[in-house]
Amino acid sequence: MNATADRALAGSWVYEGLDSLNEFGYAAVVTLGDPDLYRRFGFEPAARFDLRCRWPDSAEAFQVHRLAG
């Protein structure tokens, strides 16, 4: 698999996960991951919602995505 195919596959997994969590009625999902990757899916810095991660130096990577729920 090449990098483009890997990225497309990862994107489909993220969208599938978001859809499933929304169907289960969750209001939001958080992640600790690459901001450049997750921003594509609508994730925002968790600090905007006054959420903090307990691990040091993780503020940029700690993100949240609000679901329609």
Structure class = alpha+beta
Any idea what the radius of gyration is?
13 Å
Number of domains: 1
Instruction: Indicate the mean pLDDT.
Output: 92
* Topology, number of strands: 3
Number of separate helices? 2
State the helical fraction. 25-40%
Which percent range describes the beta-strand content?
A: 15-25%
- Unreliably modeled segments: none
SSE order:
HEHEE
Molecular shape: flat
Largest sheet, in brief, is:
3 strands, antiparallel
Strand order of the largest sheet: 1-3-2
Amino-to-carboxy terminus distance: 35 Å
Task: Please render the helix and strand layout as text.
Blueprint: H1 3-23, E1 28-32, H2 35-38, E2 44-45, E3 62-66
Antiparallel strand pairs: 1-3, 2-3
Can you describe what's shown?
Strands 1-3-2 form a 3-stranded antiparallel β-sheet, with helices on one face. Helix content is 36%, strand content 17%. The longest helix has 21 residues. The chain contains 2 helices and 3 strands, in the order αβαββ. This is Acetyltransferase. It comes from Klebsiella pneumoniae. GO terms for molecular function: transferase activity.
